[in-house]
């Protein structure tokens, strides 16, 4: 992808070429009269492991594609710190994520309407936007669109042990499902994935590749945005200061003709840029010696994430990927199958089988999500176990715990302090205990009995609520869904950073369009909802 030196000013400056930024670049350049600059901190997405689905293993915690953040030590995780991957490459997190296509539940969007007072965020309106950019593997219908840029595919592999787990979940009272995207996720089935013919589909490929051919789009990679350019008197955001090839460069936005700067750097990155620019909690900014442009105490607060509890079960008499991938011959066969057919383990998303369930009968809708895998390992990045096993990761999709992210330095390369505050509420701790018990109920179903499942992690010694909560702290890890740190909200919400049209409060010509805008996290994987937010922003900016 070619890079051009920026002209004097643009109609739109988009910061971050991730799940939202790439779509915005395409939508906003559809008008040839509009000049758009897209600034990305990472490199081009021409790294082969980005495009091979199993390559996420080689992208996460790799500076070629990941910011390599870590959390602070978490009390709820018994003092552990976690890797906190965020994409630093064209395509952003869509280049390194789990490729699961998930919209969330109808009730998620009702809560957004309640938080913002804006019915444009309703499930009905969100569904219309999803269908506009979707290219579904089946025929177009009431739930799915056809012909959009974003391919939604069936997975290209199955494992007998996953089918057995599916039957066990059905026996435990979770109905079969072949579509988790109709507004009520309750059920068990194989995930749909963001892939095209066995290759990962990222937003750079889906949206930016065509847009980059347009003369009115300039893309700059390996450019770190230092701060926004803001007139403290008028509160106009009129440009951006960034560092490229060791040089500090400023570029302007044509605010005289309603130009805008659009932050799409994600739930972590957008906070960092806002705070370095003097937008955030006045007390925190003053501690760092940053002049306060707008005192918005909600910047960096309201961090929400999905914590997965990785339960591992040894099995006998049925094959898993552990034994297949641990032999040289097995690895050769896996590689050959992908080369010839674009199928098999190298084509698989990190999780294949999914389920949504009620952790207890008093939940209003399915509140836990399972990611089930025909493999097991001690922790991410390590070798698979030598024994046959499956992993049933369960996460609370509507956590009540709230964390924060804030800069601790003016250095744009310095990592922020990320404190998710997992399991900090009594409700979340109870859901964790209930979830572990629910998994055991599924494992005890008749379908799995012939395979003698044995709980390897956390272990049957954990039985009481107190013991299970401690176990959750030992085995819990992020599923990489941070949202909410620049949330939308009503005028009377002092912690709302944005209005319902994604405009930064008290500022002019500045919006935040990414997962940080969510008032509450969606009940499932968050990539598709982030694209839907970008679709809404495009509607607002183009008047369509």
TrEMBL record:
Q: Which family does it belong to?
A: Belongs to the GMC oxidoreductase family.
UniProt keyword Flavoprotein present: yes
Q: What protein am I looking at?
A: Choline dehydrogenase
Quote any Pfam family the record assigns: GMC_oxred_N
- Keyword Flavoprotein belongs to the record: yes
State its cofactor: FAD
Q: What InterPro entries does the record point to? A: FAD/NAD-bd_sf, GMC_OxRdtase, GMC_OxRdtase_N, GMC_OxRtase_C
